[in-house]
């Protein structure tokens, strides 16, 4: 697995990752992590294969819902494709592939991996 450093950092501790690449992502306290894709990808995003592995190489469980949360980031509409959680302070490796080449080559072929705060019980 080819892993590159997380140089494409987003506001709020998120990371941008090009399709086909893997990056290490730090896990903050009291957060779940969303993997977001552009809304423009629409149905094509269903063909993406994403993985999240902890430091031992164990895959994390990815959760999805039928209703994709959408929000504007940097003037562009994004939707949450997957959500996962890991222990605070951990570092996981995240990557998404487009094995069927459904995402157009001209698109900004980046996903966003963004922490989302959770309310303690």
SSE blueprint and pairings:
Blueprint: E1 3-4, E2 15-18, E3 22-26, E4 31-38, E5 49-53, E6 70-73, E7 76-84, E8 91-97, E9 110-117
Parallel strand pairs: 1-3
Antiparallel strand pairs: 2-9, 3-8, 4-7, 4-9, 5-8, 6-7
Structure, briefly:
The chain contains no helices and 9 strands.
| Percent range of helical residues | under 10%
Number of strands: 9
Q: What percent of residues are in strands? A: 35-45%
What is the average per-residue confidence, as pLDDT, rounded to a whole number? 84
Overall SS class? mainly beta
Distance between the termini: 37 Å
- Following the backbone from N to C, one meets helices and strands in this order, namely EEEEEEEEE
Q: How large, in whole angstroms, is the Cα Rg?
A: 14 Å
With strands numbered from the N-terminus, the spatial order across the biggest sheet is 2-9-4-7-6
Our count of helices gives 0
As residue ranges, the low-confidence spans are: none
* Overall spatial form: globular
Major sheet characteristics: 5 strands, antiparallel
Describe the structure.
With 121 residues, this protein is mostly beta strands. The chain has strands at 3-4, 15-18, 22-26, 31-38, 49-53, 70-73, 76-84, 91-97, 110-117. Strands 2-9-4-7-6 form a five-stranded antiparallel β-sheet, with no helix packed on it. The protein has a four-stranded mixed β-sheet with strand order 1-3-8-5, with no helix packed on it. Strand 6 and strand 7 (76-84) form a beta hairpin. The radius of gyration is 14 Å and the shape is globular.
């Amino acid at each position: 697995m080819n892993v590159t450093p997380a140089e494409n950092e987003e506001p709020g501790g998120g990371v941008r990752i090009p399709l086909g690449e893997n990056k290490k992502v730090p896990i903050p306290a009291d957060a779940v992590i969303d993997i977001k894709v552009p809304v423009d990808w629409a149905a094509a995003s269903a063909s993406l294969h994403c993985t999240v592995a902890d430091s031992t190489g164990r895959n994390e469980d990815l959760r999805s819902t039928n209703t994709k949360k959408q929000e504007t980031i940097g003037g562009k509409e994004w939707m949450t494709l997957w959500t996962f959680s890991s222990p605070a302070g951990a570092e996981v490796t995240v990557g998404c592939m487009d094995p069927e080449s459904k995402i157009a080559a001209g698109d900004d072929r980046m996903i966003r991996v963004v922490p989302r705060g959770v309310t303690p019980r």
